[in-house]
What we know:
single chain; alpha+beta; Type Iii Antifreeze Protein Isoform Hplc 12; five-stranded antiparallel sheet; two-stranded antiparallel ribbon; 3 helices; 9 strands; globular
Amino acid sequence: MARKLLLIFASLTLVIAGGALYLALSKSPATASGATRSVLVITGDLPPGTPGANLTEAQVQPVDVSANLVPADAVTNVGQIATLKSIGPLFRGQILMGRMFAPTSATGGLPIPQGTNAITLQITDSGRVAGFVQPGSNVVIYERAQGTGNPGVVVLQSAQVIAIGPTTSGGQPTGGAVPNANAAVTLVTFALSPKDSVKVVGREDLYLGLLPS
């Protein structure tokens, strides 16, 4: 009888210890999703030309995210951009990155390289690599085929993104030739030469491929 009670007590002890370990692990972000890093996230929309030195704790707040999702140029302290200004609009929920800032705010808040002009296109959320395309990204621009049996085409082998605009309903085609008035599209601005600009103006159902930095 004593032996039976001892076995029952030992079993209960193991169950309790296992439950405690599970609760401890489930409450640990690092265990649940791997290593984490603290980044600054924008809490509200801000206009182009916003000085980094003027950012307040209410406008950017630290958030722990999975380390493998942190961009290489993520800003972890506003002191890193204290002498810079944003080169385009900043939007709520974005991770603050160094590529979003420059020493001066250029034409209209855009850093337009010599020999290029700024061209803005409507791109769907999936078409900009699930939102990973950001200012400073280099991308391939594709035009998806309209209808079945037609291959898509590479419109430009390389294009530089200089700004990301707001997301709106823009009637972009979603996998077919019929526009969907409720399809979410984002305004993406590129720095392109005049020769390359005419290759993209007027095209629809564009899709971006993110190139290595």
